Structure formats: structure tokens, C-alpha cells
Amino acid sequence: MKRSDLAVYFIMGTENCKENPLSVLEDALKSGITMFQLREKGAKALKGEAYETFALTCQSLCKEYAIPFIINDDVELAIKINADGVHVGQEDKPLAQIREQLKGKIVGVSVHNEEEMKLAVAGGADYVGIGPIYETQSKADAKPAAGVSFLSKARTDYPDFPIVGIGGITTNNALEVLRAGADGVAVISAICQSSNRGQTINQLK
Ligand SMILES: C=C1C=NC(C(F)(F)F)=NC1=N
User: Which residues are involved in binding 2-[(2R,5Z)-2-carboxy-4-methylthiazol-5(2H)-ylidene]ethyl phosphate (predicted)?
Assistant: First the structure.
């Protein structure tokens, strides 16, 4: 994984799209996203066979565009379908165990403070997600918007570590996140709901 892979990190699940999620993903891939995370959450989340089939279809679309395909939380599925990696939160399995299970794959970790950042870096994470930077519509149990202050601090403490900002990021505030030191921005709604994804994605870079 290169730091530039984090430039426009699209995250999506079936709950985030009104249109067909696969056509949204293909349009986003055509429009220049640099990384994709399948984050299947919510009351109507796909489960079992349907979830795996959907994941495999997303994976093959990403492969067509040579874009890293990341699974949120589900380490077992990521291993089973040989995804390019996983993104995990603080509540998931110990990072050391995930790192062991996914040697050579991308392991991303959500961090919210200096202690979590220190543990993620020491534990072998390939990148960290910091947020929510702004108010988010996409995560029901999100912590309050933190702004860019912790992101700036993390960049100061870890000048060369891959960091992506997440939470309420749009074409209107992405630049602030990058100026604060993020390698890129993770986006759900701004891309899912865009009427011109090519333009939106260019304005996030
Ligand atoms: C809760 C999350 C926090 N950060 C990220 C990412 F942007 F990928 F780092 N993904 C998530 N699912």
C-alpha cells in the first residue's frame, strides 16, 4: 500500500446508496477513487451468502481497475476471499492477532486519540483512519466531530505514517483535512449521493 492509495478512499455499503450499489461503485472506480472499502452495516445489511457474493462482485470490479479492495471488520471474510485487506475498529480483535492472520495484506485501524494511535503504529497497522472530522450522516454511533486538531497532532508525531481523515468530508472541506496532514480523505455520502462523481472525486483530491 502506498500513501497515495489513501487519496480518495471510497467507503460504501448497500444502505448508503439509493441507486444500485454496484453501478455506484463502478462509476466511482471509473471516476478515479484510489481505494475502496466495503462497509456493510445497518438493519438491512446483507448477510451470509448474499453478503459474500456481493463482496466478491465488488472485489472483481476493484480488480478490473487495480484498486485495493478492503473489507470493514469482517476479518474471516477478508481471508476467505483474499481481499487486499481489512479495516478494523478499536472494539475488534487485538491488532496483533489480525496482523498475524493477514500477513502481507493491508490492515487499517480507526484511532481517536494518541494512545490508540501509538498502539496502532506499534501493532503494525498499515494506515490509520482518524475521525469523525466533521458531523457524519453515515455512522449512527459516531463520536462527536473532532475537527482536524487530533489529525494534525498525529501527523506531527508520525510525519511519515499513512493517515486518512473520515467523517462528514465533502468537496467543500476536503482541502482543510489534507492541509492538516492527511494523506487522503475517506468518503461515503459525498460520493454515493453525487450527481457527477467525476467532478466530485476530482474536487476531493
Ligand atoms: C470507522 C472507520 C474509520 N476509518 C475508516 C478509514 F477511512 F478507512 F480509515 N474506515 C472506517 N470504517
Answer: 136-138, 168, 188-189
